[in-house]
User: Which sequence fits this backbone?
């Protein structure tokens, strides 16, 4: 399996190479040269696999520089009931991502039972293991630099903490995370974890990370790596639960299902798109945004207009508060038949004019045929959805998952099961849950008293040079 850049001007690479880097050297994103395929027969043989077995079968198709046995050992060490089953204490913890039917035709795929109570653990925990074995093989170190609006940062830190070959520098926007999210990250006292609290919004944090990645000399000198949602290892790890959800919801591989995905940076839903390209029978991928509706605007009109920092709303589903969607480039690359020149034109337009428009072009019907549809959810919608889901089904969902359910119901089709991805547990967002149902969400016992623990972080301005010199001073292996 070879990987190519969406912009067509970076060297071809293999899985382990792109695992440790972020953007390609031409500013593009790496994608497999061609998507591996899964036949219906193969899919049927996967029905009896456990989650770690399925993970190794799916991921193996994207990797040819890690042995099959080693990968299987790694997935079974990572995807354990102990690591992914303690949040709710369910009896089906060994499923890792249990499917829960709310009513016939409507299900919730639980992706948030890992150590930081969000779906990002599923990919990040594996990434921790993949990083460590690849660094050991090469005798190298890595300085992970990332930006987070909450969930990515904690998932990354919990996956990388205590790993001596890795330091983590995580930029988070001041005052934009929930008290729980903040405490979850800032209370870690591992020597290899550095929380940088940036006086700015998430997109400024993300821009600084991009600026660091674009400085090739700095990047090489300090062995800078990325765990943001553009990391291909994360995308691949997330593909697994689309297969798992499909297999749990169907009896035969002739059936189709749809998935509803609360979206921000287009990482999670991109994995669904990859699964569909591999041949998984997915009817629709329903993309839900919150008030930050860049992607909903695109799927309705063909206009992709990134927002300015000032236009980014602070919402009660903060992990979806984005101004542009960093993984979207991979989807557009597929839509335009993988033409790097055309892709560069669109992104040039985006950089100079802040938007490109596919509506009315010959490309627009291809987007229409992609199976991706979208919708938008507001604070009122999400509070109402949390309440009605609780009243009807006796289950409390988090605000992001509620956005997904709200939009899923707008696109549900009688004959096709709709699987809503649960992207976080409500315990992370008590303020909104209290507003919706008048009571605080249950909190897993491991998190009792979290906000009272001592916090450790570096407050800094949104200044990439200052942040670079901090990283240079504290980098591992330099
Ligand atoms: C990260 C996150 C999202 C958005 O996922 P993307 O991959 O960025 O689209 C949605 N919900 C929660 C809870 C998240 O943590």
Assistant:
């Amino acid at each position: 399996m070879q990987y190519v850049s969406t912009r067509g001007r970076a060297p071809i690479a293999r899985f382990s190479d792109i695992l440790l880097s972020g953007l390609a050297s031409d500013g593009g994103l790496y994608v497999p040269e061609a998507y591996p395929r899964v036949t219906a027969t193969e899919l049927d043989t996967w029905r009896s696999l456990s989650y770690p077995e399925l993970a190794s079968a799916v991921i193996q198709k994207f990797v040819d520089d890690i042995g099959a046995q080693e990968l299987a050992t790694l997935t079974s060490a990572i995807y354990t009931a102990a690591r992914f089953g303690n949040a709710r204490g369910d009896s089906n913890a060994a499923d890792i991502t249990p499917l829960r039917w709310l009513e016939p035709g409507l299900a919730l795929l639980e992706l948030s039972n890992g150590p930081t109570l969000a779906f990002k653990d599923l990919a990040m925990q594996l990434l921790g293991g993949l990083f460590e074995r690849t660094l050991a093989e090469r005798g190298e170190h890595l300085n992970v630099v990332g930006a987070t609006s909450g969930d990515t940062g904690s998932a990354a830190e919990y996956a990388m903490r205590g790993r001596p070959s890795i330091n983590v520098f995580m930029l988070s926007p001041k005052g934009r995370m929930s008290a729980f999210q903040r405490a979850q990250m800032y209370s870690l006292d591992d020597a290899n974890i550095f929380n940088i609290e940036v006086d700015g919004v998430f997109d400024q944090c993300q821009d600084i990370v991009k600026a660091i990645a674009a400085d090739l000399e700095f990047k090489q000198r300090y062995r800078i790596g990325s765990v943001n949602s553009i990391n291909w290892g994360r995308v691949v790890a997330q593909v697994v639960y689309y297969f798992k959800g499909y297999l749990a919801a169907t009896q035969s591989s002739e059936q189709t299902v749809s998935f509803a995905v609360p979206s921000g940076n287009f990482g999670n839903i991109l994995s669904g798109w990859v699964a569909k390209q591999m041949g998984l029978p997915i009817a629709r991928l329903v993309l839900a945004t919150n008030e930050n509706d860049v992607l909903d605007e695109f799927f309705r009109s063909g206009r992709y207009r990134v927002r300015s920092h000032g236009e980014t709303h602070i919402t009660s589903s903060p992990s979806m508060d984005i101004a542009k969607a960093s993984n979207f480039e991979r989807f557009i690359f597929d839509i335009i038949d993988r033409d790097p020149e055309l892709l560069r034109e669109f992104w040039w337009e985006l950089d100079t004019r802040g938007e490109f428009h596919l509506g009315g072009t010959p490309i627009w019907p291809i987007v229409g045929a992609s199976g991706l549809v979208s919708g938008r959810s507001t604070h009122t919608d999400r509070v109402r959805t949390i309440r009605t889901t609780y009243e009807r089904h006796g289950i409390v969902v988090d605000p992001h998952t509620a956005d997904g359910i709200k939009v899923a119901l707008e696109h549900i089709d009688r004959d096709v099961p709709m699987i809503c991805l649960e992207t976080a547990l409500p315990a992370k967002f008590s303020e909104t849950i209290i507003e919706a149902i008048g009571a605080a969400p249950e909190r897993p016992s491991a998190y009792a008293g979290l906000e009272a623990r001592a916090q450790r972080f570096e407050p800094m301005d949104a200044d990439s040079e200052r942040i670079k010199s901090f990283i240079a001073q504290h980098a591992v292996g330099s």
